[in-house]
Amino acid sequence: MKKSQKGDNMxxxxxxxxxxxxxERIEPLEVITLEGDAIPAEGExxxxxxxxxxxxxxxxxxxxxxxxxxxxxxxxxxxxxxxxVRIKTDSLINDIENGTVSACDVDPNPxxxxxxxxxxxxxxxxxxxxxxxxxxxxxxxxxxxxxKAKRNNDAEAILLGVSRRWLREMLKAYLxxxxxxxxxxxxxxxxxxxxxxxxxxxxxxKNDVDEIxxxxxxxxxxxxxxxxxxxxxxxxxxxxxxxxPDGSSVKMVTLxxxxxxxxxxxxxxxxxxxxxxxxxxxxxxxxKQNNDRQLVGNSKTGVYELGQIVEADEMELGCxxxxxxxxxxxxxxxxxxxxxxxxxxICIGAYVSLENNSMRGFQQVFLSLLEPHKNQTKGYNIDxxxxxxxxxxxxxxxxxxxxxxxxxxxxxxxxxxxxxxxxPVPPGCGSLKGVVxxxxxxxxxxxxxxxxxxxxxxxKYRGGDLAKGDACLTxxxxxxxxxxxxxLYNRRVFEGLIDKKYLDNDVSPTPKGxxxxxxxxxxxxxxxxxxxxxxxxxxxxMLAKEEEKRKFTWNRRKGIVYTFYKTELRFYSxxxxxxxxxxxxxxxxDIEVRYNVDDIRNVYIRxxxxxxxxxxAEKIEQQYTYADLTWDEYDECxxxxxxxxxxxxxxQVYLDTKLNLQDTVEKQAEMAKALNPKKKKKYGKAHPEDxxxxxxxxxxxxxGITKRSYSSIDPEPKKETLTKQxxxxxxxxxLRIPDEMRTMGDRKxxxxxxxxxxxxxxxxxx
Length: 766
Prior knowledge:
Elements: E1 3-6, E2 12-14, E3 23-25, E4 31-32, E5 51-52, E6 56-59, E7 62-69, E8 73-78, E9 84-88, H1 89-98, E10 102-103, E11 111-113, H2 116-136, H3 154-160, H4 164-176, H5 208-223, H6 226-237, E12 239-243, E13 250-254, H7 264-274, H8 285-292, E14 309-322, E15 330-341, E16 347-353, H9 359-367, H10 373-376, E17 397-400, H11 409-418, E18 421-424, H12 434-450, H13 464-470, H14 475-490, H15 500-504, H16 511-521, H17 535-542, E19 552-555, E20 559-564, E21 567-571, H18 576-584, E22 593-596, E23 599-607, E24 610-615, H19 631-643, H20 645-675, H21 691-698, H22 724-732, E25 743-744, E26 747-748, H23 751-765
Parallel strand pairs: 14-17, 17-18
Antiparallel strand pairs: 1-2, 3-11, 4-5, 6-7, 6-10, 7-8, 8-9, 12-13, 14-15, 15-16, 19-20, 20-21, 22-23, 23-24, 25-26
Helix pairs in contact: 5-6, 5-7, 11-17, 12-14
């Protein structure tokens, strides 16, 4: 195939070759008019000019090519600059008729002699570019703008076997040709790209090394980091199963570096050759200031002992978690609280929750230091030694940022009780606590690569809403992944400079190795300072104190009582010291009660300089049905019970029943009064049908003499004789006297005068 001519539009065309095996002629391009998409016939007169895709126009002294035309709008690209404009089609036609825009002569499209392989290549390229144009169509005016963010087209570049820069140039040529696929022909001498050491054909690699490098490049497009791409290569090609000595299990072991056919440097150079470098330098004012400042030291400056300084921080993972019960409700992003020992760079504590900038999170990560981490990771199926994740260490100083949890009064009081020095770094200076920041970055990197499309927020093109839709992991599953990342972090290899004494003594250049060496030969020796004697004091200092919403009261009969919406939790102990408090202590309410926010089963008090634990009352069994809840969960449970529909319905039924009973009692009493006039009560023998009377008769002899004394039975009282006037008074005593009968003039009558007045009226009527 011969090169015949060059055009100003950067497209070279090939003439016919008599020896070519296949010929293809370019057909006329699509044409539309203002009325529709119909192409006018030759010689047919038209009232308005035709606007065709691929037409060349001159406007404002510049030449423009149309590459997208429909009845509504037309897109034009400059032939000399990277500008793209969008105008209405009818406006363009009016400008052509008015002479503002003039059509330029276009050379006729010649015929080409192409092989079938070449046609397939340019067809595939055209398909890729059409997909790019379709994605960019809403904002295609900014496609080549240097001020706007560019879409990542690495996948398309790798698919076509070109760099991102060359892909951009090919796209410009394709648009300036009016989206003519023959502009995508390689016009260099020999009509082919120079052979590179490794083929770009994923399906048919030349050899094993070529296959591995292609897979690594593919993983780089997925993960975005060469290190993660090489890890994927190692997982797929350079691991083999090894059986344990006892034959109980089989583990996957990575091959040594000398046995790998592809090294990290080979893959890194291959990736750089086919992609552009990425820059992560900050661009806002604070980042520019941090990037330009002088770094005269590091985080380990002035640190000489294990446990001397620990850096603490919290980090929000970019991964959404879902509810464990339904698997659909998105709860939010997981937050990791961590503590890293500065001298060795080993992580000594980690905790995962949903609370961000919370004192509770710091309390939990501190409490995890008071016991072996094997207890914390129990149930997550993580295989590691205690040297991989040391614990039982309380530092002398904590270096942290100025988060709300570290500036709170609770944090200051806890550090004051324990005698730990608090050293907050200035705002915006994360490098001053770079050890823990490196932990945050590495954990994010470990998890991001593996959680892609599983709820992890990747970039601005795949934002939070899409990540929420892909979320599938629960908080417990995220905790297991973070704990495994901690083990990986503590086993990482230091590539940078380390102390010469570690090299002289063949110390493993890992946090685990340095910690073990300093523990055995260091300046301060073993930093472990938590034991059975000191653990209660550390625990008590980090416990939550009484708050207004959670108040504990002392009851000398019930013990310690927590009341929430009329529901009581009782804490009681049979220990002598607790009974002494209830019996002999004059003011037990002055004894402070503390609690662990995640443990409802116990509360803690300090009495006579000793820390005591008070459990839930053992004999109240219904309390232990809530034992697996936290305090917040218990409060929420009681609150739901109060506000539940069943509770409201039961209260309504009870209230209606109570009011109906009150009405019934009142009506029954009024009816009884009306039927039984008020009289002087009579006392005598019980009614013959009464059971008591029957028992009395059964105890008597036939002759009327009882066998035993019945002095407890009252004798029959004598009948009281009443006068005639008293009988009349008793007959009308129950009557209600009208108000007008109770007064005579302005004077109020007494009760006796009222009755006499009524009797007089009765006698007059008779």
